[in-house]
Amino acid sequence: MRFIVAPDSFKGSMSSLEAGDTIRRAILREMPDAAVHVIPIADGGEGTVEALLHSTGGERIELQLRGPYGEPVSAFYGRIGDGQTAVIEVAAVVGLPFVPADRRNPLQSTSYGVGECILHALEGGVRRFIIGLGGSATNDGGIGMLRALGVKCLDAADQPIPPIAANLNQVSTVDFSGLHPLLAEAEFRIACDVDNPLCGPDGASAVFGPQKGAAPAQVEELDRGMRVYAQAVEESLGRPGLQNAAGAGAAGGLGFALLALGGKMQSGAQLIAETAQIEALLADADWLFVGEGRTDEQTLHGKAPFYLASLAKRYGVKTVLLSGSLGDHLDELYSAFDSMHSIVNRPMTLEQAMTHAEELLFNAARNIVRLWK
């Protein structure tokens, strides 16, 4: 039997690599002669660097950058096996975990550190980038990142504006002439699984601002400033309507800024799967194991397990889903997965389930394999 094990992370409990190794051990416990290939999967958020470094080889690069409020933080990015591609998780540079809940004020946020990270990779010879959007603490429309890369945002008096979200409404002119010259050779692929525009009721500030600490009045202020800033960027580039592009509102508007640099949006799950070359492995597999922390109707909207199951169908490979919990819409989910299983095996609290997630996942996978055996 040939198994592909490609789970997403069980957030707060196990990384995708840890979950994959747990399922692998369960399979081999019952079928010692099975061929098991673990491919940790991510959707562009937490775990993206780890997943791609495991699948392709490469190195993790640690460095000091500016965090979401401009303070020094210990961050990292990955340089995958080809030596020419950098993988950056926005969350690893300006993520919510860097800011305690009682200190969150997205008006003071900046994505400057993401630009510093890109520069570090550029100057190290990288020209291809995979940028994972998700988990950011910022809501600055990418003004900080652009400033770090040489773009100047000026007010009505042609004075430079400090690149934080509170100043977006002061932007009158955006000057791209100082953009770092190596960016002309760079290619950005943006791993993004949301399609929100930059502004409005479905935009970055309204949808994601509250989880970053924005009160209702701040949400309105951020959205107004974002419109002013976005219009200035569009006029400078001659690209009207860029703020309305799908994914422009991702990561507090970093999606918009990366699109302004010529980046291409792509499903995070698809991008990671392609880079890890999972399709070639599925062509020779019997079973696919996928997993995630919770499965519900959102899974059907391009999340990693759904994308992989769709890919497996092309090759006649059956897909088993192991999840922390199963929500409603099971009939719709069965259109994607051949079998679905919650790993929780007795009444317990969420905290207990998360604490014992590895044991629960191992036992659930083992029971499935015993049935086949």
Shape descriptor reads elongated
What topology, given as strand order, has the largest sheet? Answer: 3-4-5-6-9-10
- Helix % is 25-40%
CATH class of the largest domain: Alpha Beta
The unreliable regions are: none
What is the number of E strands? 13
**CATH arch. level architecture of the largest domain:** Alpha-Beta Complex
What sequence of helices (H) and strands (E) makes up the elements?
A: EHEHEEEHHEHEEEHHHEHHEHEHEHH
**CATH superfamily placement of the largest domain:** Glycerate kinase, domain 2
- The percentage of residues in β strands lies in 15-25%
Structural class: alpha/beta
Rg over CA atoms: 21 Å
Question: What count of domains describes the coordinates?
Answer: 2
According to CATH, the fold-level topology of the largest domain is Glycerate kinase, domain 2
Head-to-tail CA distance between termini: 10 Å
The biggest beta sheet reads: 6 strands, mixed
Per DSSP, the total helix count is: 14
Q: What average pLDDT do the residues reach?
A: 93
Keywords: Kinase, Transferase
GO molecular function: kinase activity
Protein name: Glycerate kinase
Family: Belongs to the glycerate kinase type-1 family.
List strands and helices in order, with pairings.
Layout (H helix, E strand, L loop, with lengths): L1 E4 L10 H15 L4 E4 L9 H9 L1 E9 L5 E9 L4 E5 L1 H4 L17 H12 L4 E5 L10 H6 L3 E3 L18 E3 L11 E5 L12 H5 L7 H22 L16 H7 L3 E3 L1 H8 L2 H5 L4 E6 L11 H10 L4 E6 L6 H5 L4 E4 L7 H6 L1 H16 L1
Parallel strand pairs: 1-2, 1-11, 5-6, 6-9, 9-10, 11-12, 12-13
Antiparallel strand pairs: 3-4, 4-5, 7-8
